[in-house]
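Review form for a predicted model. The reviewer records the input and the model, then writes brief findings.
Reviewer: anonymous (R2)
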Amino acid sequence: MSATRYTYLGPEGTFTEAALRTLPEAATRELVPMVSVPAALDAVRSGEAAAAFVPIENSVEGGVTATLDELVSGEPLMIYREVLLPITFALLVRPGTKLSDVKTVTGHPVAQPQVRNWLRAHLPDALWESAASNADGARLVQEGRFDAAFAGEFAAATYGLEPLVTEIHDAENAETRFVLVGRPARPAAPTGADKTSVVIWQRDDHPGALLELLQQFAVRGVNLMLLQSRPTGAGIGNYCFSIDAEGHISDRRVGEALMGLKRICPKVRFLGSYPQAGVSPPVPRGETLRPGPSDAEFVDAAEWLARCQDGRA
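Model under review:
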């Protein structure tokens, strides 16, 4: 395995690359662009790369299904870091192109919902066709296959294009969440501001089935930050659930919730516990929890039960 190689959704000039370069260790790694999310992750599974950096969630469009589905299936992988990147687009064109010249546009499928209103207002007759990534769209414009691409303004120089319009976004404060994914190993030590990701499968479909899963978190005071269903491929109505929960697997409330899920689910895939991006740890750790789910309270409850069992209550 190459311990110094990180793959990412390419080509050069993607928002993924921009987010990856915010990690301090990126300066000392070989950064290799890949043609797709599956290709980036498969390089980790095969040992060709130590980690892959891929988008997983957008504040406008929601989960990035290519990443979620890859983490659900195949050889297990783990998330070690996350990065939040503010997203704003530029309309990149070949030099000399005017807005009236733009008849065809391209970009990543996740970009389209973020610029739909702008397109309707300024290029209502332009034909949209999706590209593998925003930077790949810029490359296609460079080759003359499209008139314009929605991408990061920083990609213009890479592909010899010009930003015809900048600061394009339908939603203020739009962000995309990216994750650094590697092979399974011991999670990093808890920081006090962590997130735990899992995928769970239902045993069967019945009234209250999802509620039973969610209760494992609720009764232990674990806050959920993401819940998304994905088809398993086993037929209509068969779903698994990708979940992000607040806390670290070493926290008693989180660990017990995962054990509860393991008891009632046919399959639970642990995707990692890692620091939340942009969140500072509380001081002291656990200070912001509601009464009941702190580690100290779990320990006290266990000791009380032991005293009852021993006749010392």
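Findings: Residues 295-310 form the longest helix (16 residues).
Further findings: The chain has a mean pLDDT of 90.
Recommendation: see findings above.
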